[in-house]
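Recap from last week: sequence in, structure out.
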Amino acid sequence: METLKRESDYDSTLDTQLHISRVGQLLVRAAIELVNRGEKHDASKLLPLEKETFDRVTPQLKKLTFGTPEYQASLDSMKEALEHHYQNNSHHPEHYLDGVDGMDLFDLLEMFMDWKAAGERHAGGGDILKSIELNTERFGLSSQRVNILINTAIRYPHLLSKSSM
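Predicted structure tokens:
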């Protein structure tokens, strides 16, 4: 006759090890997704419609401070190329009808890193906290989302430096 174990005899070690292993598998898959996004990030800027425009405007943008009226005027001059860019790159809120609310976690993380890297290319740039501040109003970010972005910037000091190179 088989003896039934009592619940008090349960050892969680195996279940915990299986859980740890599964979370590890899922994180590796997430890391692979991020690596793939890094390799393909903004590739549409190398296509004819976008490349011609970015060739013309990028030198001007580098001299401007992000968020200024002059910066916005330069963006306005890129309307057609930017619309194409947004349609082909899901890390931009403009890609979705409902903006940031349409994004997934990978889009959000790529957007955050894009803000950091793009800011480094502009006059006085590289301040991710300033980018978060300016983009909060621009994209109607919730306070919870803003807190997550700020917490990420603060907890990873290389994101606060003017250049991580």
